[in-house]
Write a structure and sequence with these properties.
Helices cover 35% and strands 25% of the residues. Strands 6-7-8-3-9-10 form a six-stranded mixed sheet, sandwiched between helices. Strands 2-1-4-5 form a four-stranded antiparallel sheet, covered by helices on one side. The longest helix has 19 residues. The radius of gyration is 19 Å and the shape is globular. By secondary structure, it is of the alpha/beta class. The structure holds adenosine-5'-triphosphate. The site of adenosine-5'-triphosphate has 10 residues, from helix 1. Adenosine-5'-triphosphate binds next to helix 1.
């Protein structure tokens, strides 16, 4: 579904992504992990066409994205921090987004209702808490039922109930054959949800494996233990080599 070949992006002399190769398939819930500054957002922005790589290519459903900008209509994006006009109400923001795609007449408003946004739709965006803004961002990402969801720290600021609502929604969409790419620093939020892990370090791909493979390799079941185990062993190898 998404194929990334030798993707390289520098900001000045600094290389943020260094020859990344990845294949992501439909029905997968892929967690994109790595320390601060490892290149996760740059990779996401490259897929969204918001960052132009200097080398390499990204293909979605067999089409090179640089030649087919319309591919973006098939991606639901939830940014780390959603920015909306302060004086608009929740309802007005949702209407504005729907208006952008007049040709679409059916919407997925499950999250709008499950999050209870329908009950506070007359509230202005500037009056909303951080978590409620996150809920609006999630609703917008899922509104047009795209085939691909890219969710950047989606659970940050959500209360435990909303967190579960969103996780259920992600699992449902994966079961329907959608591809979900998620970044999060809260690994416990990804437990039970993720089918594959991509781990970036200093702009390079450290590993890309299924949860099953990682559990077998480390003997651990929880994501934070799996990652800790791999990083500990990677450190040991480095110490042995140097
Ligand atoms: N527009 C830019 N100009 C210069 N450097 C940038 C730019 N965008 C990103 N970088 C640098 O590229 C590196 C990767 O940044 P990126 O935002 O992709 O990391 P990240 O893995 O998403 O980090 P975090 O976990 O903190 O969100 C960082 O060192 C960052 O400072």
């Amino acid at each position: 579904m998404i194929r990334i070949d030798k993707l390289t992006k520098s900001f000045g002399k600094f290389r943020a992504l260094d020859g990344i190769d990845l294949i992501l398939e439909k029905g997968q819930a892929v967690s994109l992990l790595g320390p601060n500054g490892s290149g996760k957002t740059t990779l996401i922005k490259s897929i969204l066409g918001l960052v132009i790589p200097e080398k390499g290519s990204i293909t979605i459903n067999g089409q090179l994205i640089r030649n087919h900008p319309s591919y973006r209509a098939n991606i639901g994006y939830m940014p780390q921090i959603g920015r909306y006009p302060d004086n608009m109400t929740i309802e007005q923001v949702i209407h504005m987004i729907k208006d952008i795609r007049k040709e679409q007449t059916e919407y997925d408003e499950e999250l709008y209702v499950s999050f209870g946004l329908d009950k506070i739709k007359h509230k202005k965006m500037r009056t909303l808490s951080g978590g409620t803004r996150q809920k609006v961002s999630a609703c917008i990402a899922f509104l047009f039922s795209p085939d691909i969801y890219i969710l950047d720290e989606p659970t940050a600021g959500l209360d435990p109930v909303a967190n579960e609502v969103l996780k259920d929604k992600i699992a449902t969409e994966c079961a329907r054959g959608k591809l979900v790419l998620i970044t999060s620093h809260v690994l416990s939020d990804l437990d039970g949800l993720t089918s594959h892990i991509i781990y970036l370090q200093d702009g390079q791909l450290m590993f890309h494996e299924s949860i099953g493979q990682l559990q077998e390799r480390t003997g651990e079941t929880k994501l934070n233990k799996i990652i800790a185990n791999i990083l500990k062993n990677a450190d040991r190898k480095q110490i042995c080599i140097s």
